[in-house]
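Task card 7
Instruction: Convert sequence to structure tokens.
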Amino acid sequence: MMEVRGGLYHAQRAMRHMRRAAMQRGLVAILDIGTSKIACLILRFDGPDNFRGDGVGSMAGQSSFRVIGAATTRSRGVRFGEIDAMVETERAIRTAVQAAQKMAGVRVDHVIACLAGARPRSYGLAGHVELEEGEVREADIGRVLASCEVPDVGEGREVLHAQPVNFALDHRTGLNDPRGQMGNVLATDMHLLTVEETAVRNILHCIKRCDLELAGVASSAYVAGVSSLVEDEQELGAACIDLGGGSTGLSIFVKKHMIYADAVRMGGEHVTSDISMGLQVPMATAERIKTFYGGVVATGMDDREMIEIGGNTGDWEHDRRAVSRSELIGIMRPRVEEILEEVRARLDAAGFEHLPSQSIVLTGGGSQIPGLDGLASKILGQQVRLGRPLRVQGLPQAATGSAFASAVGLCLFAAHPQDEWWDFEIPVEGYSSRSLRRAVRWLKENW
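Output:
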């Protein structure tokens, strides 16, 4: 069991070294592998100080970049945010990467990818060590992270993110970077996010088949939150709900750190599929109808607004059909409600109501359905707003919408790497003999 952890620890470390090398050369590609689209952005890092990996905290090692190439292609071979058909996904990734390289006029070797779905699970861990010299050194950070009791995460699961979210020195808690400070006992709280191993393996394998090197991998729910939540929300506590095509990711942030993540295996494509079945039209037609006429709140006007369905089956009666917009809303609303109810159950399970502020930000392509924010605040019972990703230099206008929250978040993740545990020299041998116990949720006690 622990050999897997050790192996993963070294694999993630190797990726981070690769990312550092790619950034020193000044070029890296960002790949958002989604169920409905695959987006590729190419980043150029400026100046001689391309990458400073020092520091602890959510914005450690900042570096400035701009987008010099961008392309998207319709996703193929991806279901529920996970790779389902390797050859088709490989072809789609190659298409997106080649188009972005052509626009940028450069060739890239290293990519940082994000994945949705993969059944994420969050754990809160805690650990503490006594300081030998009364001052917190780099090595002490490694020791305190290693002292965390790692839960038995189960067979076939991998740790995707492992981030210290809080340090405490004696009786002072809420420290971002305790290095250099004086004290006797150093304690930490850590957030561990695990995903299904096969999902990560498939992405690794697929990117290798595209003759590219994977220099980092992140959870879509996490990076969407990084790009869509404003600083106050990340500090005081907020949830980001990323409505994608095949799955809906949710992440909770507090004190600028992600402390919980989950995913619901439903998204915008399920709404499209309901329209396709309800109106008996092909998926492409259903998608067009949803995009142009969709909504979740019907008014009296919608009974009178007729939507030409169109078609070319050759059956004249069938192809000349029209439905009222309120009928369309009647098909869409139950599925959207189901997704939001499921999100609400996950937020309740995470203890979201214990946070000082409980704002919710909706993002992702599915968040563009008219009336969604109103319906979401009814079901989730909180302040809900629609989020757009932060402005990133050089990003084409077409890629600034909420559907690009994960891609933009991944750019920020590349430029401001979180201090994950593999950044510090962790004594792995001291880490394998730990008794494995399922960690308890620490949201209530600690926040």
